[in-house]
Amino acid sequence: MLDCGLDMTSTLNFLPLPLVQSPRLSKLPGWVLKDGSTFLDKELKECSGHVFVDSVPEFCLPETELLDLSTVDVILISNYHCMMALPYITEYTGFAGTVYATEPTVQIGRLLMEELVNSIERVPKAQSASMWKNKEVQRLLPAPLKDAVEVSMWRKCYTMPEVNAALSKIQLVGYSQKIELFGAVQVTPLSSGYALGSSNWIIQSHYEKVSYVSGSSLLTTHPQPMDQASLKNSDVLILTGLTQIPTANPDGMVGEFCSNLAMTVRNGGNVLVPCYPSGVIYDLLECLYQYIDSAGLSNVPFYFISPVANSSLEFSQIFAEWLCHNKQTKVYLPEPPFPHAELIQTNKLKHYPSIHGDFSNDFKQPCVVFTGHPSLRFGDVVHFMELWGKSSLNTVIFTEPDFSYLDALAPYQPLAMKCVYCPIDTRLNFIQVSKLLKEVQPLHVVCPEQYTQPPPTQAHRTDLMIDCQPPPMSYRRAEVLTLPYKRRYEKIEIMPELADSLVPLEIKPGISLATVSAVLHTKDNKHVLQLPPKPPQPPASKKRKRVSDDVPECKPLKPLLSGSIPVDQFVQTLEKHGFSDVKVEDTAKGHIVLLQEAETLIQIEEDSTHIICDNDEPLRVKLRDLVLKFLQKF
Amino acid sequence: MPEIKVTPLGAGQDVGRSCILVSIAGKNVMLDCGMHMGYNDDRRFPDFSYITQNGRLTDFLDCVIISHFHLDHCGALPYFSEMVGYDGPIYMTHPTKAICPILLEDYRKITVDKKGETNFFTSQMIKDCMKKVVAVHLHQTVQVDEELEIKAYYAGHVLGAAMFQIKVGCESVVYTGDYNMTPDRHLGAAWIDKCRPDLLITESTYATTIRDSKRCRERDFLKKVHETVERGGKVLIPVFALGRAQELCILLETFWERMNLKAPIYFSTGLTEKANHYYKLFITWTNQKIRKTFVQRNMFEFKHIKAFDRAFADNPGPMVVFATPGMLHAGQSLQIFRKWAGNEKNMVIMPGYCVQGTVGHKILSGQRKLEMEGRQILEVKMQVEYMSFSAHADAKGIMQLIRQAEPRNVLLVHGEAKKMEFLKQKIEQEFHVNCYMPANGETTTIFTNPSIPVDISLGLLKRETATGLLPDSKKPKLMHGTLMMKDNSFRLVSPEQALKELGLTEHQLRFTCRVHIQDPRKEHETVLRVYNHLKGVLKDYSVQHLPDGSITVESILIQATAHSEDQGTKVLLVSWTYQDEELGSFLTSLLKKGLPQSTA
């Protein structure tokens, strides 16, 4: 199984979870059906024309009905965002295999999960809505609730014990490490350049190579650059995790981010940056590190609020081997690779586990707050939205591309606060994809259907799709795709003793043949050929043998023959070996050689020889060997 | 026959200047490039002229691998690459790459600036040398070229220490460097998978030692330090800046905290803080406990341990000082030692191995009067203690590693000849593998017998595995195929495919034998008797009686006709192709014996 992501856009249908009682949210009116019935008004609330579920947010799981997950042997994880559904899979589906991921992926993945669990568990909600999920009821709801898929499969968040159990099933691997799976295939993670420890995977046998390219970046940010060379010679390249915002240039977005931030702060407003606790935030902090002095922001406090803020900042400094060259060089000095160490030291950046406790004492405005969750449905960000939403001095800047910012903001409307959308998605865009494919030249490309057509909102942008030859094979949810290649060879090992016994014969210039009769041993999908065992010595006792003792035990097939027999030479050979009464008759297709005394007849044609004789074994064997002299064995 | 050749240029029946040449399947690899602490002349570096007299080293060596940052493993590297001249790749782990140049610079300073030697490598040479270094991850398979690949395993010994597997085709060598099989306070234990190398080159520093539990040694150490401090004495612990030092610092730090002790602990040289920084940034290379808790409490941030100033040595009262280098052969540790040696209240604790010729080695072997520079005699009154904290595997650990890796041959380096001899016997007895211990300059040749990988057509393989689904060890299934050798490709295909690919047609060789049987019955009755007879004898074969009156045994055809002259004799025509030769021949001789009397 390739990756194990969680669709969190489902949470956009829920009301935010406020950290402190929010009078605004609690006063929202219940939703009333067109016919006036109010049986859903406890579950659904209306806000500025949108309807939200008033319940603990739920997540949309990967498809688990299509196949029996206990038959999955291995899960390969490509980056920490793509493992968020892992606890659901490892703890509830009978999955008993191994999960492979790099160390940073696991450590940061754990932080993301911890933050998720924490921000949902710390705001216990008495009510759990389920009536609206009834198919008959859902039909009556307004969009987008009406169109939400598989709502019956939506699940509440997992717990920390489940997270720990899931993570304990992960086997840590390093880039370019070759991992043997059951002797049949080898998998190798390669740097994908997108995040700390993010990987593409190569799945290969001796003859076939499938590359799984998911969430890759060619931009130079903090992670190790993408390893493209190792993707070459792929039979199939599965391509997914492209940028969600193909029209936005990440560099330009960072610039806009900085200038909006500076402008707001200069005007005395606060800036809220809803974000994940790892990833782009490191790059943003680095940009700000270079920017704040020149922009005159040195006295503005930056707050990073997350239950895992400290861990995230600390972890980022210890993965030297997974960083880009520049950062690695800093570690050699030895200096912390990320400048946020210095921001913390100089008190410009402060981090807190939550808004409660120390933060409330230190809190000074105007300020910049980085906090989660980017969906604006849970986490400390909810508090700041409620706190700052009413003033137009403040700005919220969206940088994470996973959620539509308009949908994210919907339950906070009407909103006076400024909203700026600067999505920073460093993953491959379509231009980079075609460059990559040209470079790597896979025989076939497989990708989600969405990438084979322009985005639905920009149907004329034919440049916003994958363009390659042959055209990519696309797949949809729950579709089975047959990959277009046929396996023809496998590796087998010939033991040295057997190799020594082989007699190669040059058949044509440069081509030699040897017939091999050997014992095949197969263990763990590895095949070995050994010398056949020596036939057991006949028992020395003179006891009369039963007929069946002589039955040939195994059926050692004789080799195939090829060639033709020149009659004249054959007759000469016969005469040399003491046959004096040889007579040759021509037939339509060849000749008949007669040995009159022995009542034996040999039909010789271009592609066949037939020896017909009395039951005289020594004679037959003699003739056989004479014929074989003229033929080649295969 | 394919062979692997190993020649130590250093560390052959010796400890110091580790440098081992390995030739495997046409590739030449140099393992480590160390200096010898016991010598100050030419002998301190390996004799690289052995590799090639007049050619360039780069042409001869495919790569150089450095196992860890200790100078006896990397100290000759700038000399080798910049002064002798080598431009090929040098592989080491990231922490080694980070720390190695610092120790080299330190070494250079002591040699050139303090001892005033000339004709030594320069700072620039160290920098240029490091540019040739390629850093590797643990377990990453590094393709040096098309055929040669290397892979690093965790070795424990010091931060970033690695064992290396060198592999060409299916032949492989594992070089352990220095390693430690028991986790300590800051590092984990060495680990390798069952990679079954043709040869394991292992260090054998503690070939004959089986150490007691680490806890006991730690308690002993703390007790000695504590007693000395209590009676107002000074404790000198000569260490190398990175490695044991951090382990002992963690140990003392926690002890000081627990016992609430006040005596100062100092760490000499400016390296301290820097060294600890490396540990903080490369925390993923430390042991699990430290890695798990580093966010809450970084074990390498010491509260009680302060930087040392030269003037402190003359301060009255108790103190503990960690000073470099570890073998008391130069530098600050030697200076402090000279100051404190005369007082019996003081103590020097040697926490690691000392190379012959060093002051450390002399005092450990009981010498109490030392001749220093300028013929001065130093009388050693202070207590001298030896505690083996150096993180080498002991005999038990070495055996454990051999058990883990399952090598076909073992070669010992980095140890003393006498001790090696003992370990060699033990290894040969216990594992029944050959064990070698070449001296420097002596070449050991190991013959390998690799199996030959070929491509087998899936059709043929499936045919064979399908017929042999039930594995029966008593009756091994024979498989028949044709090995096609073209250029350098080896393919095993079915004979039919081989013929087809070569554009040849099959020549069918068929035999038909007349077997005369005395049987007065009607033809079809005879056939039935023959059928029953064969069915009874050939239980494992498919024997069929066809509607047209013939019998088949597998693909062999038997037909019966009456004799033209003698009605009491029937003629059986047995017909088979050459491929069924064995069975056909067997059948004719079986039938010739006649039919059993009562088969009705």
Could you describe the 3D structure shown?
The complex is a heterodimer of chains A (634) and B (600). With 634 residues, chain A is an alpha/beta fold. Chain B folds into four domains: 1-208 and 389-445, Ribonuclease Z/Hydroxyacylglutathione hydrolase-like (Metallo-beta-lactamase, Chain A); 212-384, Rossmann fold; 452-467 and 474-500, no CATH class; 508-591, Alpha-D-phosphohexomutase, C-terminal domain (TATA-Binding Protein, 2-Layer Sandwich), CATH 3.30.310.50. Chain B contains 17 helices and 30 strands. A seven-stranded mixed β-sheet of chain B has the order 6-5-4-3-2-1-22. Chain B has a seven-stranded mixed β-sheet with strand order 7-8-9-10-11-20-21, covered by helices on one side. In chain B, strands 14-13-15-12-16-19 form a six-stranded parallel β-sheet, with helices on both faces. At the A-B interface, α8, β19, β21, β22 and β23 of A face α4, α8, β23, α14 and β24 of B. β27 of chain A pairs parallel with β26 of chain B.
